[in-house]
């Protein structure tokens, strides 16, 4: 047969006719088929097994090995001590392979398992919260053992209630541990900037909303106090350097800032310089949540992203007793009242028109002896709240505490919690240009409408109460809820 094959080959080389080419193909093709058949017969007599890497994320790979390799204790061992180094290296590599010897069939592809990351779980929880809040718009009123929001003081009471309950159920905040007292992790707990220190200190000891595991946190708190910095620093550039250095330390030690460019981080400041302290870190202004008393839209305050918080003057070390109530509407004999310093762009106009010029509109720069500031507020129907150096004023909260309808006289000011509260239902807004017509404006409000507003003031003041131990729906929880709403607007995947 071999000789015939050679003869055919020689004849093919010497002839170029088409008939001889056909003869060659008729001989070569059967030889190829015969060779393939013999190879398959030999391979079919040898056992075969496959393996796949145990890592479910890796690509599934299958390979075959001869059963001539001795196997013992689920590992591939050497047949003799004189094995070559290449054989040992191959055997060591095979130790990382999962295989089966129970049958001689190739293993099936391992099904891939889907693993949720910590961020995936957090975002899925937020997604469920968004869906629940959306459904609450057309749902029934929820029952609550402490308080069920209701009435026109809310833009939508049912939506707010559902959102608040979702916050209580899952909202977690990580407080960065970097920084030292007194500039960090501490703040003033009395006088005009008390809300700044009270919030920082309460977050430090809180166990319901604070988490020490950053992978479980929905938001991250930068606990620096602008008021404390103001005691040691006297120029904005130094403020900016400290804040910028602090953020740089955070970004170097933790991955969370870079993950969102600060969108799930927040600061809280009540000092007038609070907004300016963030200007030296562009991401703080552009992306982060800034909870500020000085909520001035002309100074880059963004109501869609930032949070307006109330300015509260505790007046001393005790928080109890700030909420004094007040006389009923029928016994309030003064139409409007104000007492305070003559500073800022608005108050000089107010003093020009009304300082000691009308018994119905009692405006004082300094109270005469024998008059009580709190008593005058309790006897007044309306309490004037003009802006000073900055737009925020502690008189707004003081008016609510004493059952007095606040009259907001400001420009570019966003009232606290205005994402939830409808301020026009329990307050009066007077533009700076209409200060001269203030009495006419207030006298034009019907008595029935005033009584409704005064009743709503009594209802809404629970959201501005500052307690030594935070209570549900008080100012501490309302600040957290406003931050929670902003975090719901951010999606990280």
UniProtKB/TrEMBL annotation:
Superkingdom, natural source: Eukaryota
Residues in Exostosin GT47 domain copies: 168-443
Membrane topology label: Single-pass type II membrane protein
Cellular component GO terms held in the UniProt record: Golgi membrane
Family annotation (InterPro entries): Exostosin, Exostosin_GT47
GO molecular function: glycosyltransferase activity
Subcellular location(s) per record: Golgi apparatus membrane
Main location: Golgi
Classification via Pfam families: Exostosin_GT47
Keyword Cell inner membrane: no
Keyword annotations from UniProtKB, A to Z: Glycosyltransferase, Golgi apparatus, Signal-anchor, Transferase, Transmembrane
Family the entry assigns: Belongs to the glycosyltransferase 47 family.
Full protein name: Exostosin GT47 domain-containing protein
């Amino acid at each position: 047969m071999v000789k015939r094959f050679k003869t055919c080959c020689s004849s093919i080389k010497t002839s170029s006719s088409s008939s001889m080419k056909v003869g060659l193909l008729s001989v070569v093709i059967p030889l190829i088929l015969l060779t393939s058949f013999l190879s398959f017969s030999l391979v079919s007599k040898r056992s075969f097994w496959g393996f796949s890497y145990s890592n479910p994320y890796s690509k599934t790979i299958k390979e075959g090995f001869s059963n001539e390799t001795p196997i013992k204790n689920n590992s591939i061992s050497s047949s003799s001590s004189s094995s070559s180094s290449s054989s040992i290296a191959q055997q060591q590599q095979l130790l990382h392979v999962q295989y089966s010897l129970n049958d001689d069939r190739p293993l099936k592809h391992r099904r891939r398992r889907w693993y949720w990351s910590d961020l995936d779980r957090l975002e899925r929880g937020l997604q469920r919260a968004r869906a629940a809040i959306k459904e609450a718009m057309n749902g029934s009123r929820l029952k609550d053992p402490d308080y069920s929001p209701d009435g026109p003081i809310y833009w939508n009471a049912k939506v707010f209630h559902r959102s608040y309950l979702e916050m209580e159920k899952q909202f977690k905040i990580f407080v960065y541990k970097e920084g030292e007292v007194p500039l960090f992790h501490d703040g003033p707990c009395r006088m005009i900037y008390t809300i700044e220190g009270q919030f920082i200190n309460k977050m430090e000891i809180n166990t319901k909303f604070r988490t020490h595991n950053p992978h479980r946190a929905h938001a991250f708190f930068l606990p620096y106090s602008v008021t404390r910095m103001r005691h040691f620093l006297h120029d904005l550039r130094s403020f900016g350097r400290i804040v910028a250095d602090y953020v740089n330390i955070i970004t170097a030690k933790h991955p969370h800032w870079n993950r969102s460019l600060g969108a799930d981080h927040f600061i809280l400041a009540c000092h007038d310089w609070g907004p300016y302290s963030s200007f030296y870190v562009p991401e703080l202004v552009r992306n982060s949540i800034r909870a500020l008393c000085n909520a001035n839209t002309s100074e880059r305050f963004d109501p869609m992203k930032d949070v307006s918080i109330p300015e509260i003057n505790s007046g001393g070390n005790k928080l109890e007793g700030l909420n004094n109530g007040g006389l009923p509407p029928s016994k309030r004999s003064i139409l409007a009242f104000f007492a305070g310093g003559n500073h800022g762009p608005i108050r000089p106009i107010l003093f020009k028109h009304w300082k000691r010029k009308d018994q119905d509109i009692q405006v004082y720069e300094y109270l005469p002896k024998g008059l009580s500031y709190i008593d005058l507020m309790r006897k007044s129907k309306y309490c004037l709240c003009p802006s000073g150096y900055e737009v925020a004023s502690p008189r707004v909260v003081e008016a609510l505490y004493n059952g007095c309808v606040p009259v907001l006289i400001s420009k570019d000011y966003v009232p606290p919690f205005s994402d939830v509260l409808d301020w026009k239902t329990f307050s009066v807004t007077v533009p700076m240009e209409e200060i001269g017509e203030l009495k006419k404006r207030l006298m034009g409000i019907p008595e029935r409408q005033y009584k409704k507003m005064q009743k709503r003031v009594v209802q809404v003041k629970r959201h501005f109460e500052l307690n030594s131990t935070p209570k549900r729906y008080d100012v501490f929880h309302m600040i957290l809820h406003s931050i929670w709403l902003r975090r719901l607007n951010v999606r990280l995947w």
